Amino acid sequence: MTKFSPKEYDAWYETPLGRLCDRLEKEAVFSLFQPKGLVLDIGCGTGNYTLELARHGRKVVGIDSSLKMIVFAKRKAEGENLPVNFVVGSGEAIPFKGNAFHGAIAVTALCFIANPETMIAETERILKTDGTILVGELNKFSYWAFLRRLKGWLKKSAYRKARLYSIKTLQGMLQNMGFKNLYWSSCLHFPPLNSSWFLKQWQFFEIIGKKLFPENGAFIVIAGRK
Length: 226
Known about the structure:
The protein is α/β, with parallel strands linked by helices. It is built from 9 helices and 7 strands. Strands 3-2-1-4-5-7-6 form a 7-stranded mixed β-sheet, with helices on both faces.
């Protein structure tokens, strides 16, 4: 579902900024998303969240439209002996029967989907009654979003055509598809400077940002039930 190469995508997580973002984003995600039973990771990419779910004992299936991403993710799972299944497919036409999964997660998948409402409808279809959904996206109302847009216009980037969202927009989309009991969170209030020294100060920015601008973290997550 993305235009990144698998190696380039994973290389981000090896940088100081990437490691910190990954940790804080996962804390935000798993504070709201604790499904039981079978989970579908939509737009799984290189398997970052698929493998994390498996490490915590979850039964999980990863789906992505990119064969290269799926092959790369599968090799990573095999390297850790994690029992994960991967499928090539679109989030807009999920190749599974209805009421098959207890939970579904989609992190930075909607932003690269042509028809996001269709993907949410498909997610609702494959979830069991009272199943849980979590969507994680890049926040439209953050200065990170401005920088990503600027980068996309200055040079070739997958973010040039990416669709960014606000918490309010995501809430409306999920509610329109019948999801309820919605909870949200945001993180990454610090400037995106890839400096180990600067990033040691991240807690100061997060504390101030969460108090003064709780809806404006660069990464937003929203979870609910079918």
